[in-house]
Write a structure and sequence with these properties.
22% of the residues lie in helices and 32% in strands. It is an alpha+beta fold. Strand 1 and strand 2 form a beta hairpin. It starts with a strand and ends with a strand.
C-alpha cells in the first residue's frame, strides 16, 4: 500500500493532513503510479506503508 506524504504528515481519507500512520485512516493506493499521479497534483511524495 502507498500513501501520500506531505509536510510533516500524510493525507487522510477526509482530505486533511494527519500525523497518524494508521492505514485505516489514511488515503491509501494499491498502485504506486496512481499514488504518484495524485502526489504530483498536490505537491506531495509517495511513501510505502504497511
Amino acid at each position: 500500500m502507498f500513501a501520500v506524504k506531505v509536510f510533516h504528515g500524510y493525507i487522510a481519507k477526509d482530505g486533511k493532513r494527519t500525523r497518524n500512520k494508521n492505514p485505516q485512516i489514511l488515503l491509501t493506493f494499491s498502485c504506486k503510479e496512481h499514488a504518484q499521479k495524485f502526489a504530483n497534483q498536490i505537491g506531495g511524495r509517495v511513501k510505502q506503508i504497511g
